[in-house]
Amino acid sequence: MNSRNLIPSLIVAALSWSQPGLAQVDRPDIGGPEGLDIYEELTEEAIETTSNWDVNDSLTFIPGYDMYCHWNTDVLFDRLSSKPFHHDTLRIELGMHECDIAMPCDGKLTSPFGMRKGRMHYGVDLDLETGDPVLSAFPGMVRISKYNKTFGNVVVVRHYNGLETLYAHLSKRSVEPGDLIDAGDTLGLGGNTGRSYGSHLHFEVRFLDQPIDPATVVDIEHGSLKALHYDLYGSTFTSSIAARTATTTPAVGKKYHVIRSGDTLYGLSRRYGVNVRELCRINGIRESSTLSIGQRLRYR
Ligand SMILES: [Zn+2]
Predict the structure, then answer these.
(1) pLDDT tens digits for 89-141?
(2) How far is the CA of 111 from the centre of ligand 1 (A)?
(3) 69: CA distance to ligand 1 center in Å?
(4) What is the distance in A from the centroid of ligand 1 to the CA of 7?
(5) Of 44-58, 170-184, 214-228, the least confident
(6) What class is the 256-298 domain?
(7) What is the CA(183)–ligand 1 centre distance, in A?
(8) Could you tell me which CATH class the domain 1-249 is placed in?
């Protein structure tokens, strides 16, 4: 049963994010499906517009609020909230019985989580026909229901244990942010929207914005839980980040280039095989920044 519009579709910024300097945290750049960047950041403007928001204003029942400290109905996964995982182990309860999950659709696995053609695939692809219902795997609250150029029509559901699940390429969405849903409730209809070739469901499982292989949570073939709980280790995320960064940032010491006359960010980008955005990020500069002769620029 849906309780529509339970929560206004506003962006709620974590109070801690308003602290200056947090944006400087050195963190690997994270790509989307097929390596596209799906992470966004809460802008200063977004934070300002929600500065009057009070955690006591009835929003404390948002699933997993204590872990995320925010509720954002627009940004799919937030770069700033991709916190380093400090626990040795964190046990996430998945259900009381192995059948406490609804398979999002009936189709077979057509593409697994992991590296694909040299890029990270952050979910699994499940076969379906356009128009087949897509169901929520677990109970929770719809955080996002929108069109995205990569994911097409996409729905993200926040669950009570802090996990989030994402359902992409839908032909139709039938829920709105704030809707309370049960496992097995219909979120929309499968399709082929966004960057997709052929009707399928791209299904992701995330915790604190970090991707988890859905096949380690769900037995896709049998439509049951792999276990009643899921233990997260610091290394759970490290491995997916390592796989991701291996394609862009070799894990070796820092290297620097000393700027000479005629050097440009684009030239250095080509020379060292690091994209301009990454160069800017690791050096804390903007693409429009002027380079001065003798300046040291880190390229690795
Ligand atoms: Zn996919």
Answers:
(1) 788 899 999 899 999 999 999 999 998 888 889 999 999 999 999 999 999 99
(2) 7
(3) 28
(4) 29
(5) 44-58
(6) alpha beta
(7) 22
(8) mainly beta
C-alpha 169 – ligand 1 centre gap (Å): 9
Each residue's pLDDT tens digit, 109-123: 999 999 888 888 999
Which ranges of the chain does DSSP label H, i.e. alpha helix? 44-49, 65-68, 234-245, 265-272, 276-283
Domain boundaries, the chain: 1-249, 256-298
Question: What single-letter amino acid sits at 115?
Answer: M
CA of 125 to the centre of ligand 1 (A): 5
- Amino acid at residue number 182: D
- Centre of ligand 1 to C-alpha 51, Å, is 36
Residue 55: CB partners within 8 Å, gap ≥ 6?
Answer: 15
User: How many whole angstroms from 151 Cα to the centroid of ligand 1?
Assistant: 9
Q: Note the pLDDT of residue 21.
A: 31
The 10s digit of each residue's pLDDT in 249-285 is 333 467 788 888 888 888 888 777 788 888 888 887 8
Question: How far, in Å, is the centroid of ligand 1 from the Cα of 229?
Answer: 25
CA–CA dist 224, 5 (Å, integer)? 31
| Centre of ligand 1 from the C-alpha of residue 244, in Å | 15
Q: Cα 5 vs. chain centroid, distance in angstroms? A: 23
